[in-house]
Input
Amino acid sequence: MSKNVLGKGLGALIPEDIEVTSAEIKESMIEIPVNRVDPNPGQPRKEFDENALKELAVSIKQSGLIQPIIVRKKGDRYELIAGERRLKAAGIAGVESVKAILTENLTPSQRMEIALVENLQRADLNPIEAAMGIRELMTKGGFTQEEVSERIGKERSTVTNLLRLLTLPEEIREDIRGGKISAGHGRALAGLDSHETQKEYWRKTVNNGWSVRRLENALQSKPGRKQKERTKNDSSGQYRDLEDRLKSYFGTKVKIIKSGDTGRIEIEFYNDDQLTGILEKIGHDY
Output
C-alpha cells in the first residue's frame, strides 16, 4: 500500500494483497438494516465526538449515506469492519438501512488494518487509542513499525512516539485520552526513567497548567532522561505539539519548519477533495 493513503477513498482501505476491482466493489454493494450490524470488537476508536456525530447525522438525513460502511457476514447478521462513526450517525438520524460493501475472506489483521486506516482517514483517533490500535496491528499482523507507518500514512517517528505513550502509567494515559494533557506532554514524560518521576511531573503539569515547552524546560536539568537532547534541527516540543493538533484538525500531515525568526507551515493533500476540505476549514473556497 502506498504511504500516501489519506484521502484516497475506499481503495486505500483494502489491503494490497486482496484484489478488489471497481466492478467487484459495485457487485458487493448491498443495503442492510442498521439494527443487523454488530460493532467490530477490534475497533480502535472507543470514543466519538457527540457534536460531530449529530452534524453527520443531519447530513445523512438530508443527503443519505454517501460513503458506504464495510461489513462481513456473520451468521444471519453483519459485523462492521469500517465505518462505525457513519453507522452511529445513521442511527441518530433514524435511518433504517444503509449502503454497505460486503467483504469476505479477510483475516483478523486485515480487518484491523482496514478499521485503523479508515479511522485515521476520517477523524484522528486520540493518541492513546491510535497507539493501542497500532500496537494491536503490529501484534496481530506481524508488522514492523516501518510497515505500519507505510500503511497508515504517518512518519515512522510518529508511530514510534505514539507507541512510547503506552509505556506511561495508566493515570497519565487516561489524561491524554481525555485531552487533559497532550501527546506532547506524554512524549516529554515518557523520557523519564521511572513511573514515580513521570507521575511527579505529570501532577505538576496538571496542577500548574504547564505547556509542553514549560514541562520540557522543567525537565532540562532533571537526571534520568531516556532521550538525549534533541538536535538543533529537530522541532521543539512546542512545535511538535502544535503539529499534532494541526494534523488532527486537517486530517493530514502538517509540518512546521522554522528557520531563525521565520518559517512556514506545510499542509499535505492527496486529491482535490481533500484540498477542498482543507480550504473550507480555513474559510476559503476552491
Observations:
- Residues 167-281 form a domain with the Arc Repressor Mutant, subunit A fold (CATH 1.10.10).
- The chain has two domains: 10-122, 167-281.
- Confidence is low (pLDDT under 50) at residues 1-27, 224-235.
